[in-house]
User: What shape does this take?
Amino acid sequence: MGKITAAITGIHGYVPDYILTNKELETMVDTNDEWITSRTGVKERRILKGEERGSSDMGAEAVKGLLKKTNTAAEEIDLIICATATPDMLFPSTACIIADKVGATNCFAYDLMAACSGFLYSLATASKFIETGAYKKVIVVGADKMSSIVDYTERSTCIIFGDGSGAVLLEPSEDGLGIQDSILKSDGSGRNCLHLKAGGSVKPASHETIDAKEHFIFQDGQTVFKAAVKSMADVSEEIMNRNNLTADDVAWLVPHQANKRIIDATARRMGVGEDKVMLNIQRYGNTTNATIPLCLWEWENQLNKGDNIILAAFGGGFTWGSIYLKWAYDSNK
Assistant: This one.
């Protein structure tokens, strides 16, 4: 019996129908398409509309599509981990709500919060349940309704974020495929540069916190940008060196879609050309935990069994990391 690794055996994504374009944002804040595009790479983003609709609704759609594509019954799922920075509510977990909405009655479920790095943290965590032989079918969901915490009068943040979800199925592999290595890091001293100040136990919601707009994203853009460029580039290079990979060995870089300039800097550091970089920030913006699975979903039919893929992310906390995996199936067959 060979070593068990955790392999992605299916992927699906979901984005809302409503498209918020740069042109529409020009009517909301003092900005323009050229300014937004040159600084972020974003042209449009999707927004979840409707009363009482949240991250679980998008996550459930992604999971339903995933189960259908992989011909998997909801009752077969052992565990669902949801990476989200915008849970439906503080408790119960969004993962529990997703499990209920898709009929996954035999699994346990929980959320994992690491801001924009949450999907990578969750993927690495889920892989251990597979590698130890504890479970056979684990779903990792990245889902965020960022529009719920964006101040649409603040031009430095409202131009960046969008809503969306993606989900992957992990199963055991004995063929040397799947997740090969992960490097995950954090530095809590970065918390003052990127956070949601109120709504937690330190500053519960009050009239004062609402009036002060402390339930919206705060970001020190320049500091975050510099930290993200260095951290994503460093960790991506580190995981390549640790696994004796050259740029020629890498089929795809799948970076968190935070900012095109950050993505370009990471690719340059790795020596990877633009033709090997998954990029959809222009259509969806930064969907936080959904960016990486949405990329994999959109590029699925271009992935081949055995492809070396590097995932990289950076988020509030600060948190960052990289995962090296070998794609486990011929998606275009």
User: Anything to note?
Assistant: The chain has two domains: 5-176, 180-326. The chain has a mean pLDDT of 96.
